[in-house]
What does this fold into?
Amino acid sequence: MDVSSHVSMVQSKIAAAAIAAGRSPQEITLCAATKVQSDETIRQAIAAGISVCGENRVQELTAHLAANAYEGAREVHFIGHLQTNKVKQVVGKVDLIQSVDSPHLLQAIHTQADKLDIVQDILFEVNIAGESSKSGCSPELLPQLVQQAAQLPHVRVRGLMAIPPISSAPGANRRYFAQMRQLFIDITQKMSDNQGVMDCLSMGMSADYEDAIAEGATLVRVGTALFGPRPPIGPR
It folds into this structure.
């Protein structure tokens, strides 16, 4: 199957999962995780109907932007771990930074957005399973981040993101998705001073996006199911 066929298949599965959950397929955004994909593959995906691309690595984001590989996409997101020393390369270059997980990173993003005189949309990334190998803040840290964000006029919190544990067992991550949905509801109630609408719950990837949709995801990040197994990743 080519990229176009894979895009069509994933879109159909997203629609079916939404309908099964009593939701409209239009409520779900498909974000193509384009990690290690070529400029041409990204262009093929956009031509096939992908409107949101998500990059994990700053170097790849910069290269794809320079090559105008995202032309035709509605939005570009940064979905990987972001180091504070690379904030300047991302803020103002993407529509949404999904991986804000610390007070220091939040402040760095605001400082750069202030210099550019823009408002940068962000999500708070939550390490919902408490895995030591993954980035993301603890659920207990969220109130502090929310309070900090409320004082920063150049960031706008759009919602939450999570990457639950890798599991091949069907339904294994539904409890984590359900916990994220409750956190999303709780944090929305605490963001009354936010500049925009809390409208994004980013969770679910190739192996479990249908379960994520069943538990309330509004955005799913899909890579392998669209592009096949990733080629080897070079040094960062």
